């Protein structure tokens, strides 16, 4: 959950850094345009290949099992229902 939140905010930060206009002009963008980079960042961090690069067991250093990855991917949509 925390990783998804950080990725979401990082998507906003990268979008604002790449935006050529003023902060006021950024506020005037449609919501879909403002949320696209954040949604993309969230999707990337929840991919099994990406998750295997940053998610490690604290004691063994092993990657998460596939069942846990699938569970995390399903839970991303829990609050959208």
Which features would summarize this protein structure in a list?
single chain, 81 residues, mainly alpha, 67% helix
Outline of this structure?
This protein has helices spanning 2-18, 23-27, 31-45, 48-54, 66-75. It is mostly helical and 81 residues long.
The share of residues in extended strands comes to under 5%
Overall residue-averaged pLDDT value: 83
Low-confidence spans: none
Helical proportion? 55-70%
Q: Distance between the terminal alpha carbons, to the nearest Å?
A: 17 Å
How many beta-strand runs?
A: 0
* C-alpha-based Rg, rounded: 15 Å
Q: What is the overall shape?
A: elongated
Name the helix and strand elements from N-terminus to C-terminus, one letter apiece: HHHHH
The SS-based structural class is mainly alpha
The DSSP helix count reads 5
Q: Characterize the main sheet.
A: none
Question: How would you portray this structure in words?
Answer:
With 81 residues, this protein is mostly helical. The protein contains five helices and no strands. Helix 1 packs across helix 3 (31-45). The longest helix has 17 residues, at 2-18. The mean pLDDT is 83.
Describe the secondary-structure layout.
Elements: H1 2-18, H2 23-27, H3 31-45, H4 48-54, H5 66-75
């Amino acid at each position: 959950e925390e990783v998804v939140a950080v990725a979401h905010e990082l998507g906003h930060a990268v979008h604002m850094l790449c935006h050529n206009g003023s902060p006021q002009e950024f506020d005037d963008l449609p919501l879909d345009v403002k949320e696209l980079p954040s949604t993309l960042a969230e999707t990337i961090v929840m991919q099994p290949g990406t998750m295997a690069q940053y998610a490690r067991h604290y004691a063994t250093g092993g990657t998460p099992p596939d069942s846990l990855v699938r569970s995390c991917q399903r839970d991303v949509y829990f609050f959208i229902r």
